[in-house]
Recover the amino acids of this structure.
């Protein structure tokens, strides 16, 4: 009699890395698995986030924010900084003569 080792077919957002696995593991925040039966999770691209376990996709960071290094969250730009594009990896400093007085600014205001 011949025995075959099989990988458990987990739901999307889960993976089973080892042959003979008995269960699937949820992808950790910052990672995703879009297909059923994944052997590993993929890290979110810079500028994107997957804030919860078992993600099947990564979402772009919105204007006024940038992605954390681990891809688990988007972080609002600090006062004095802005971001006018989606899926950014950093915020931009306001130029001289302009300011951003709130966190998460999408643009800088002109001084009066």
């Amino acid at each position: 009699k011949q025995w075959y080792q099989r990988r458990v077919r987990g739901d999307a957002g889960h993976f089973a890395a080892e042959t003979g696995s008995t269960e699937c593991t949820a992808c950790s925040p910052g990672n995703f698995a879009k297909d059923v039966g994944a052997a590993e999770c993929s890290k979110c691209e810079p500028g994107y986030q997957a804030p919860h376990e078992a993600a099947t996709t990564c979402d772009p960071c919105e204007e006024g924010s940038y992605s954390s290094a681990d891809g688990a969250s988007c972080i609002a730009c600090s006062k004095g900084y802005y971001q006018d594009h989606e899926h950014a990896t950093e915020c931009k400093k306001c130029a001289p003569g302009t300011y951003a007085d709130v966190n998460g600014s999408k643009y800088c205001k002109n001084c009066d």
The CA atoms of residues 19 and 47 lie 33 Å apart.
